[in-house]
TrEMBL record:
The chain crosses the membrane at residues 41-62. GO terms for molecular function: serine-type peptidase activity. PANTHER family: PEPTIDASE S49, PROTEINASE. Keywords: Hydrolase, Membrane, Protease, Serine protease, Transmembrane, Transmembrane helix. The keyword Hydrolase applies. GO terms for biological process: proteolysis. It holds the Pfam family Peptidase_S49. It comes from Pseudomonas poae. This is S49 family peptidase. The lineage of its organism: Bacteria, Pseudomonadati, Pseudomonadota, Gammaproteobacteria, Pseudomonadales. Belongs to the peptidase S49 family.
Length: 327
């Protein structure tokens, strides 16, 4: 009988057993960390949902509480801050909505537009101007005062000129009754680089504002006519709004686009007096309590935007796309 030879089984050494034990311990630790992380994310999301729910629940109650503490009468305050343009905080939609709410409130004794703006779209400014005049005609007993803080220029002054009266600080910048349109021309740069511009249009003047093509005299003259027409509309609105309060309507530089200090604007008739929103409410309106009617984002929207920005930043960091930051 032949015996089959078998190689002796190799017994595990102490080192192998130690490594396997260590491996199992590490895997168990990793799994536990994953488990803890999942639960952590779950509870954070739960807390976030709870906070959002509380914010949505108590925001209306806070508004009710504020309205309950208001006096029998007050002065409405509406902020016009920043560039006047569509989708901005100082858009016509926001300003007009604020104005309508203020004029329709029976407790409002007068309305103050507090302006700090360099101007902006003539279209948006024109919408607000027309609405102010309409609301003043509907509510003749409710006066509207424009108060310029740092700056009330161009389209911002366009809006202010529709008010019953305009006030400013002696150092405020007022006026800039003009129209501008600016751009760049890159024709010489392209020639130096050897780049050829190819534009295909249907219509002789369709590309007349193209910065990569030479200007044409007839197109420049046409564009100047557009600006002059808008300027005439601006001047007509200011004259209509200010009326005889403009001391010298034929002043050679009054409508030239120059900006004046409040102290200089007063004798020109661009403003009616010096003062702030609080002093006008106290001394002119006779109702010092100011209630803000400015259309604002809800706390929920502000929180959501901040949260979205924070999440996007973290996500970009984890994915390796972190842009420059200022510290």
């Amino acid at each position: 009988m032949s015996d089959e030879w078998k190689a002796p089984e190799k017994s595990e050494s102490g080192d192998d057993k130690s490594w396997k034990l260590l491996e199992k311990t590490l895997l168990a630790s990793v799994q536990e960390q994953r488990r803890s992380r999942r639960w952590g994310i779950f509870f954070k999301l739960l807390t976030f949902v709870y906070l959002l729910a509380m914010l949505a629940l108590f925001s209306p109650l806070m508004d009710v509480e504020k309205s309950a503490t208001r006096g029998s009468h007050y002065t409405a305050l509406i902020e016009v801050r920043g560039v006047i343009a569509d989708k901005e905080s100082a858009s016509a939609d926001n300003i007009v909505s604020s104005l309508r709410s203020a004029f329709e409130d029976p407790k409002v004794k007068a309305v103050i537009l507090r302006i700090n703006s360099p101007g902006g779209s003539p279209v948006q400014s024109g919408y607000v101007y027309d609405e102010i005049r309409r609301l003043r005609a509907l509510h003749p007993d409710t006066k509207l005062y424009a108060v310029i803080s740092d700056l009330g220029a161009s389209g911002a002054y366009y809006i202010a000129s529709a008010a019953d009266q305009i006030y400013a600080d002696k150092a405020s910048l007022v006026g800039s009754i003009g129209v501008t349109a600016a751009g760049y021309g890159f024709v010489g740069t392209m020639e130096k680089l050897g780049v050829e511009r190819r534009t295909y249009t249907s219509g002789e003047h369709k590309a007349f504002l193209d910065p990569f093509q030479p200007q044409k005299a007839d197109e420049t003259q046409f564009w100047q006519g557009v600006l002059d027409t808008t300027h005439r509309q601006f001047i007509a609105s200011v004259k209509q709004g200010r009326g005889d309060r403009l001391k010298d309507k034929d002043h050679p530089e009054l409508f030239s686009g120059l900006v004046w200090s409040g102290e200089q604007a007063l004798p020109l008739g661009l403003i009616d007096g010096l003062g702030s929103a609080s002093s006008v409410a106290r001394d002119v309106v006779g109702e010092k309590e100011l209630v803000d009617f400015t259309v604002q984002e809800s706390p929920f929207d502000r929180f959501s935007k901040k949260l979205g920005a924070s999440v996007a930043e973290k996500l970009a960091m984890y994915m390796g796309f972190q842009g420059p930051t200022l510290r």
